Amino acid sequence: MTRHRIFRAILPAASLALIVAAGCATLSAAQAAQREDNSPSATSVSTAVVEPCPMAIANPPPVGADGKTIGGPLVVLNGVELLLQPATKVCLSSGYGQRNGRAHRGVDYHTRTSGDVLAAADGTILEATTRADFGAMIVIYHGSSVYTRYAHLASFSAPAKQGARIRRGEVLGPIGATGATSVRHLHYEILSGTYVSGVGSFGLATHNPFGLPSP
Ligand SMILES: [Zn+2]
Q: Among 64, 140, 170, 189, which is least packed by CB within 10 angstroms?
């Protein structure tokens, strides 16, 4: 199963400030981290390296030297660092490329339990809509002509509103099976280009996340 760890580096600075202000300077780093983990305000982000699901998957990307993991936690496009796997409690269920004679322009992360969809990087939510094909779908603009799309959410979280600023690791909503799918999974796209009003995110170019370099 996929393992998850806490991406402590991006914990809100406020959490650290609180600990310092409370006079906990003698806490060991491990104790401090544990305290932050237990804080309800702490932002937890999966930094688990990507692992394929146990079942056979379409377009499997190459695995690493350990024969199991694929990469992550971050990839870079136009200088923007993005989570390769912006979700919790998932495994990779489909890679990018041709699948059953059709182009699969994203990658799929399947959850068997109750995983969440996370923002891959800081940005502004351009689209938070429900469509017949992608179900409950979010598109975020990260600057430098870089965008990400998240599809098939079960619902939208409170911060996931069109026009809202969002931080890396914030929950966009639970992974679902809305739209044209029967399997609970996140369809994730990394996009670039010029966002043209009227065409929106569907005028952008897609990228193979597993073809992008690490920071
Ligand atoms: Zn997909």
A: 64
* 141 three-state secondary structure: strand
* C-alpha to C-alpha distances, 69 to 52, 82, 139, nearest whole angstrom: 7, 18, 27
The C-alpha atoms of residue 93 and residue 84 are separated, in whole angstroms, by 14
192 in Cβ contact with 209 (< 8 Å):
no
Ligand 1: centre distance to CA 166 (Å): 23
Q: Say how many residues make up the chain.
A: 215
Residues with CB under 5 A from ligand 1 (ion): 106, 108, 187
- Interval 5-34 mean pLDDT: 36
Q: What's the pTM?
A: 0.77
Is residue 129 within 8 Å of residue 103, measured between CB atoms?
no
CB 153, CB 109: distance < 8 Å: no
Task: Sketch out the chain's domains with CATH numbers.
Answer: 8-38 (no CATH), 74-211 (2.70.70.10)
The 3-state DSSP class for residue 123 equals strand
Cα 60 to ligand 1 centre (Å): 13
Report CA(176)–ligand 1 centroid distance (Å): 12
CA angle 40, 152, 167 (to 5 degrees): 40
Q: What is the pLDDT of residues 138-153, one digit of tens each?
A: 999 999 999 999 999 9
Ligand 1: distance of its center to the CA of 42 in Å? 30
